[in-house]
């Protein structure tokens, strides 16, 4: 099976959330995630920090409008486009103005809009605390269908699987570059986003984030802890719409290794303590 997304070196470049109150949400990302909000008109906002960007538009709470993955180069994007065409994946005409005009937009197995493209160069923004946007995780009724689409059709590569005693998938972590996962998917009783994550890199930077959250009266909702799959340190907070935000560090870098399977139990989700089991 050709690992097209992996060969394209795709990485999560930006996401767009819907919100009933885009101004309030963009103010939160501006202050709490150090991503300066800019109104784009028509109740749309762009929040930009160093290596992290989020778009927010008027709509439903907790709804992902789209997720946008940038490819390493034009050759990688063209490979993905060819694969998408061969697999007969539904293509739409949606565009993001953070990507060059040759981007492609598809609809995944759960109806999410997913873009692949080439990033426009971002005007210089600096943020005090390091935290590039790094991964997006979905909630789904059927993780096997997620794998069939992201691995079987787009060519993401499985890093780890979490498996229920009966053999069904509880979670699957897939990568499109050397980072342990750029996308993951949790079995749930709903379809949507589970969380999105910023990779702080080092433990001390998580400390800086937590001090920053504390100074703004933002409480951690989970962590600190260490995930089994990915071996990353983490804390979680919630935005005013209830979207879960992860700050991660030490996420595993994979050169080459076999897929690892984990049991669906608390310790898999948090080696250090309490877990939030989704199913
Ligand atoms: Fe995560």
What does this structure look like?
This protein is of the alpha/beta class and 279 residues long. The protein folds into 2 domains: 4-117, 2,3-Dihydroxybiphenyl 1,2-Dioxygenase, domain 1, CATH 3.10.180.10; 133-269, 2,3-Dihydroxybiphenyl 1,2-Dioxygenase, domain 1, CATH 3.10.180. The protein is 19% helix and 37% strand. It is built from 6 helices and 17 strands. Strands 14-15-16-13-9-12-11-10-17 form a 9-stranded mixed beta sheet. It has an 8-stranded mixed beta sheet with strand order 2-3-4-1-5-8-7-6. Strand 14 and strand 15 (233-238) form a beta hairpin. The longest helix has 13 residues, at 74-86. The chain is globular, with a radius of gyration of 18 Å. The mean pLDDT is 96. The protein binds fe (ii) ion (FE2). Fe (ii) ion (FE2) binds at residues 135, 137, 195, 197, 246. Fe (ii) ion binds at residues 135, 137, 195, 197, 246.
Short précis:
By secondary structure, the protein is an alpha/beta fold. It has 6 helices and 17 strands. The strands form 2 sheets. The protein has a 9-stranded mixed β-sheet with strand order 14-15-16-13-9-12-11-10-17.
